[in-house]
């Protein structure tokens, strides 16, 4: 089905409702009906601060309040279309794998007209989730935005068009103190071009080591999203983000270091794992070939550095990851989630989304730089 037709039909479709009777929880306000503000939210509107916020349902799902029209209905229609169980559209099936699970809409019996999108909490299975929200694309406003809105968004981060992505927030677990460091949107907006690599690397530094395993796994997942974008010409995404999550408790390294920071065996184990990752990346670079590392401004990468080809390197990097895991005798590349979120500004199109592709390629380039250095 043509995407524009599908979106048009969904405008008249009746939303799926999950009217819950959330059980009261302690001293929570009655109007929350047992739902609480999302404690690990790193970006976006926050409940209690903004009228539109994000809540956690007692069943563990995330509730995102529907924004005012046309943004809210547009996002709901997009989720409904992509996550419909009765379609067999390969493009949408592949896209669905990169989104949080969608469970329809929910409203409290106390306020039945206030709709929330009911979504999977991507962080739930992690013990100490490290979370980063990165807005992707060269423009954070859609084609129908007013001139005032365009100027407002450009003022927030003038480098968006050149860099192609913006860190909206981070939450990083520190092993030594058993606590989290948080960075808000002002941190990301303060990152100039020359500081992007260092600024992004903070997300992968746990106070003891740079989590190269998490970087490698993140690269693999972003490359898969890039593959989808390079193959589709049906949607353009604006002001949409990638949500990164990895486990802060690093068994075999962080746990050992926390219990005995000066133990020689802990240092040796740390060195072995980092050496294994270094060997893996060296193999990955060789497999890409010299031509894939040449600077290429036409493909949307900065000329000052190099980037392996996102598509052709994917299979090789995955093979190297498995070889590294086998040689080390343990899981050296962490389990990471990278999900696409925020779809209030998604529009049908008949051309590739070059702005989003540009942002993904530049993000991959920076991740490769951090991993290599």
From TrEMBL:
E.C. no: 2.7.-.-
Biased composition annotated in UniProt, kind: Polar residues: 294-312
Annotated GO biological process: inositol phosphate biosynthetic process
Highest taxon of source: Eukaryota
Keyword ATP-binding: yes
Catalytically driven reaction(s): 1D-myo-inositol 1,3,4,6-tetrakisphosphate + ATP = 1D-myo-inositol 1,3,4,5,6-pentakisphosphate + ADP + H(+); 1D-myo-inositol 1,4,5-trisphosphate + 2 ATP = 1D-myo-inositol 1,3,4,5,6-pentakisphosphate + 2 ADP + 2 H(+)
One MF term in the entry's GO annotations: inositol tetrakisphosphate kinase activity
GO CC annotation, single: nucleus
Enzyme class name: transferase
Classification via InterPro entries: IPK (IPR005522), IPK_sf (IPR038286)
Keywords: ATP-binding, Kinase, Nucleotide-binding, Transferase
UniProt key word Kinase: yes
Biased composition range(s): Basic and acidic residues: 315-328
Similarity remark: Belongs to the inositol phosphokinase (IPK) family.
Name of this chain's protein: Kinase
Native source species: Cyprinus carpio carpio
């Amino acid at each position: 089905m043509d995407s524009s037709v599908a979106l048009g039909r969904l405008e008249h479709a009746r939303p799926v409702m999950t009217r819950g009777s959330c059980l009261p929880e302690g001293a929570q306000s009655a109007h929350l009906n047992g739902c609480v503000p999302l404690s690990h939210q790193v970006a976006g509107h926050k409940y209690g601060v903004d009228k539109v916020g994000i809540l956690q349902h007692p069943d563990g799902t995330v509730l995102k309040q529907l924004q005012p029209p046309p943004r809210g209905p547009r996002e709901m229609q997009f989720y409904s279309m992509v996550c419909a169980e009765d379609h067999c559209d390969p493009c949408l099936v592949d896209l669905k794998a990169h989104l949080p699970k969608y469970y329809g809409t929910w409203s409290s019996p106390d306020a039945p007209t206030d709709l929330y999108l009911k979504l999977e909490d991507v962080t739930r299975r992690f013990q100490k989730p490290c979370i980063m929200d990165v807005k992707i694309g060269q423009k954070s406003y859609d084609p129908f935005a007013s001139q005032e809105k365009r100027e407002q968004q450009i003022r927030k981060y003038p480098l968006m068009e050149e860099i192609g992505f913006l860190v909206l927030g981070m939450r990083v677990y520190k092993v030594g103190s058993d606590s989290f460091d948080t960075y808000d949107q002002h941190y990301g907006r303060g990152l100039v071009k020359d500081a992007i690599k260092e600024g992004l690397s903070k997300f992968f530094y746990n106070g003891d080591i740079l989590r190269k395993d998490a970087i490698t796994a993140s690269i693999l997942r972003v490359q898969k999203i890039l593959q989808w974008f390079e193959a589709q010409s049906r949607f353009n995404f604006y002001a949409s983000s990638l949500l990164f999550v990895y486990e802060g408790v690093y068994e075999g390294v962080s746990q050992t270091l926390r219990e005995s920071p000066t133990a020689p065996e802990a240092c040796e184990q740390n060195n072995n794992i980092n050496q294994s990752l270094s060997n893996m990346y060296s193999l990955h670079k060789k497999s890409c070939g010299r031509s894939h590392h040449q600077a290429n401004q036409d493909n949307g990468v900065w000329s000052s550095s190099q980037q392996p080809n996102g598509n052709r390197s994917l299979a090789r990097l995955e093979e190297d990851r498995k070889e590294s895991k086998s040689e080390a005798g343990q899981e050296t590349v962490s389990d990471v989630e990278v999900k696409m979120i925020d779809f209030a500004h998604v529009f049908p199109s008949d051309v590739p989304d070059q702005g989003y592709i540009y942002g993904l390629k530049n993000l991959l380039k920076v991740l490769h730089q951090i991993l290599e250095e």
